[in-house]
């Protein structure tokens, strides 16, 4: 199971309307490793002010790796996280996550080029290693 959904949040979904802030809180509590990684990258981006911030350290266990994969593989979770943090997320493999300023990948030619490079087929291939084969 991806998320620990409270009965109240499940009731909201059954009625047809879900409060996004409550959904984001559910993600935060259900996927703490993914939440912390993305939060720290957002903070790093704000402090450093560069075009993006990324993580290159593999998760410490399969449990944490699973959290990261669930957070970034779900369009709903990924979209809610992007809106909550005001960033665009990019994901290269089982651990390499990057955050880019929201909107900058479309409006800033330099950041757009960096985003394009990060998400390119070439970068995907160059980011592979035998240790990450089964991640």
Outline the fold blueprint.
Elements: H1 7-15, H2 20-30, H3 32-48, E1 53-54, H4 62-73, H5 75-85, E2 87-91, E3 97-101, H6 104-107, H7 109-118, H8 121-126
Distinctive features:
135 residues, mainly alpha, 8 helices
Distance between the termini: 19 Å
Q: How many DSSP E strands? A: 3
- How many DSSP helices? 8
Strand order of the largest sheet: 1-3-2
Indicate the percent of residues in helices: 55-70%
Q: What is Rg?
A: 16 Å
Q: In percent terms, what proportion of residues is strand? A: 5-15%
For the record, the count of structural domains works out to 1
Pfam families: KH_NucS_shadow (PF20704)
Task: Please provide a brief summary of the model.
With 135 residues, the chain is mostly helical. Helix content is 59%, strand content 9%.
Question: How would you describe this structure to a colleague?
Answer:
With 135 residues, the chain is mostly helical. It has one domain. It is built from 8 helices and 3 strands; from the N terminus they run αααβααββααα. It has helices at 7-15, 20-30, 32-48, 62-73, 75-85, 104-107, 109-118, 121-126, and strands spanning 53-54, 87-91, 97-101. It has a 3-stranded antiparallel sheet with strand order 1-3-2, sandwiched between helices. The chain is globular. It holds the Pfam family KH_NucS_shadow.
